[in-house]
Amino acid sequence: MITEIITTGSELLLGEIANENAQWLAAFLNEHGYTVAYMTVVGDNPRRMEEAFRHALTRADLVITSGGLGSTLGDITKKAGARAMNLPFVRIEEESRRLKIYYAEKHRPYLPSLDRQAWFAKGARLFFNEAGSASGCAVEKGGKILIHLPGPPFEMKTMMRNHVMPWLTEKLGSQGIIRSLVLSAVHMTEAEIEEKIEDLLRSQSNPTIALLARPGYVAVRVTAKGADEKETMDLIEKTAGEIEKRMPLSRYHLEGDVLNDLHHFLLENHLSVSAAESCTGGLIGKFLTDNPGSSSYFKGSAVTYWNEAKEKVLSVNKDTLRHLTAVSGPVAEEMAEGSRALYGSDIAVSTTGYAGPGKGERGEDPGLVYIGVSGPLGTEVHKEQFFGSRRSVRYGAAEKALCYLLQYGKRMKS
Q1: Which residues form the MoaB/Mog domain (predicted)?
Q2: Of 4, 140, 141, 186, most Cβ neighbours within 10 A?
Q3: 262 and 250, same structural domain?
Q4: H/E element, 137
């Protein structure tokens, strides 16, 4: 089923907030077999919003919006949707009574403006909001479905999971599933990869293959749609196997990213990790604590920006720093080993480099980073050259460090 996601709100167009809802909805819908073919962002302008909805309904079977269901004058999504579907916009008395009870239980006065949440397109199917006041809804006409979800991410996700998707499944039946396997090439460019699999790229249908430049590596994403998990994964494995015959690749993640794979790997294998950071300035620690449950494996990260900190906190040799500078393989090695000793972790990772924009102490180009990983298999160091802004270098180094951390852990368990 061809699906379009429309996120509403001028704050998105102004760049005030990230479009988290569109990203989450796309992943969730694809997981359930819905083909997300279009994504639109529209501001709080009645005419433009109605036009966006009308246009979406000409090219998609299912249109899902988020945002603009509240009680202010700027919350116009449902009204624009009713106009786009050429349906009357009516007040639902039962919903008005529910709202009065809801606000009374919250010990808040029921102001006249709050009753705007009780208005819907005629014939709309309402969805209960477990986390807020504004109900969502679905409107059907001419074989098209227009669904309105609330804007706050937690409200939207809860409603989509608990109410909208069960309703869609009951109404439309299973849409199959879509899965993606990402093969990661650490030491190859997109052009080099394309040369090796050009025939597969030209003949692709299901599965599809995409090359994606990531910080520190190139992702080769294989995506398939099937009736069930087995059929879908069989399709993926056939294509992935052919790609792997042609070049060295690592299977970092399925339906996620390197961090999620690392998170599950560390939990399942009861391994602890720590970090020692210079150029990444705490990003590794930030990434490793993004997932709930990270306290089970992450012991800490020492951000040692100055040489004195590297010496005192991580026991990096003073002579090594003086003769080789802080940005060198031996320093990355000693930092990783120092972190492992400091925190008593199973595996430790370190980063030291020049994020830019200026050159290094000995004229090195910005983007030079050494990544160390230390554990029971010994300590290894990887020399990397990143490009782009200071931010790109730092984020690329942090993500690459996680890649090497996962690789090392898998070798420990193989």
Answers
A1: 4-171
A2: 4
A3: no
A4: strand 136-141
CATH number at residue 339: 3.90.950.20
* Residue 289 tokens, joined: 């604590």
**For residue 249, what pLDDT is reported?**
80
Per DSSP, the residues of 302-313 read: EE--SHHHHHHH
The residue type found at 196 is K
Q: In this structure, are strands 35-42 and 2-8 parallel, antiparallel, or unpaired?
A: parallel
Whether 239 contacts 223, CB under 8 Å: no
Strands 62-66 and 144-149: what pairing? Answer: parallel
Q: Across residues 36-42, what is the average pLDDT?
A: 98
Residues 6 or more apart in contact with residue 286 via CB below 8 angstroms: none
* 364: number of Cβ within 10 Å: 15
Helix axes 258-269, 390-413, angle to 10 degrees: 30
Q: Would you say 227 and 254 are in contact if contact means Cβ atoms under 8 Å apart?
A: no
Lowest-pLDDT range of 109-113, 137-141, 180-184: 180-184
Greater model confidence, 108 or 365: 108
Q: CA–CA separation, 4 vs 55, rounded Å?
A: 10
Give the span between the Cα atoms of 212 and 190, in whole angstroms.
8
pLDDT band of 257, cuts 50, 70, 90: low
pLDDT tops 50 at residue 319: yes
CB 91 within 8 A of CB 118: yes
Both 200 and 316 in one domain: the answer is no
pLDDT in tens, 213-249: 876 678 899 999 999 889 999 999 999 999 999 998 8
Task: Say whether pLDDT at 164 is over 80.
Answer: yes
Confidence of residue 252 (pLDDT cuts 50, 70, 90): low
Which helix (H) or strand (E) element contains residue 270?
Answer: none
| Structural domain span for residue 265 | 258-413
Q: How far apart are the first and last CA of the chain?
A: 42
3 state SS of 383: strand
- In this structure, the answer to whether residues 225 and 182 fall within a common structural domain is yes
Cβ–Cβ under 8 Å, residues 141 and 85: yes
